[in-house]
Amino acid sequence: TLGTQTDYRDGEAQTDPYSPEYIVHSDSVPEILTLATLTWGRGLPAGQATMEIIDRIREKHAWEAALPPMDSPSNIAKRLKMMEAMERKEWAYREEEIDKLQKVKMEVFKKMLQRREENQNELNAMRLNNHWQNHQKAKEEKIRKIQHDCALMLRKLIAKRKNWMGKLERRDIIREYNDFSSQTYAPLSQIGFFPDNSSDYYAVKNFYLNTFAGLCELEKSIQSSAQSSVFPLKIKAPKPKCTITKTGYIKRSGRLEAVLAQVHQ
Q: Which of the two residues, 251 and 18, has the higher pLDDT score?
């Protein structure tokens, strides 16, 4: 009924299986001992390439067991011939492995080149888009300036066409005063009129208000003529607001006024 909890995860626990004791004879090498150094992630689980290597090792062990002994010249020649054939076979297998590895590297290299080319194309497209937008803005600004200059030249041509003969015209005062955009109401500074220079033209200038002597004279005239009606001031005191209701309670505004008076004191 008791439960236990370890300080380690199951994946971190020791998973070495039970290995019974064994004795190896001096003249034998068990094949299973070649798998003793393999662990999970390092040789295990075995894949197709690993199984091919194991089959080749088995074939080599069988070939070594089938080699003739070196007890006669014929056996020696036969042994050398078999070794040369096995060496050619191993070199052919090695060349095939190198070809496979080169093909895999070539595929990876092609994918990397393709990915780099795609990224470069995206970067070039973005740069071209920015360049195109900048040119579009410059073109729109140039078109706007051309249109503005065109409108200005058209207005000048229309103004010149009104009096293309260069005849002198009599001033029409009624038309000038009827048109609020004429030189009468809004004269231009290019013809010599500067409204800021005479800005104080419409300012009120009074001797009695702007000078001390005028103020003294104004005060004397007021005292002599209407002293009784100017200086006395009649101020009515404001009536106090009713702070008590009909039922005899003090209003909230009255309570606040009392608190403010107490704080003021």
A: 251
Residue 47 pLDDT grade (very low, low, confident, very high; cuts 50, 70, 90) = confident
Q: Where do we find the tokens 């900048």?
A: 134
Rounded to 5 degrees, what are φ and ψ at 188?
Answer: -95, 150
Which neighbouring-strand residues pair with 250?
Answer: 244
Predicted confidence (pLDDT) per residue in 203-244, tens digit: 778 888 888 998 888 888 876 655 555 556 678 877 767 777
pTM of the entire structure?
A: 0.39
**Phi-psi label, residue 138: left if phi above 0, alpha if psi -120 to 50, beta otherwise:** alpha
Question: Which structure tokens are listed for 66?
Answer: 């089938």
Tokens 């992630």 map to which residue?
41
Dump pLDDT digits (tens) for 52-90: 888 888 888 888 888 888 888 888 888 899 899 999 999
Identify which of 235, 210, 241, 208 has the alpha carbon closest to the alpha carbon of residue 222. 208
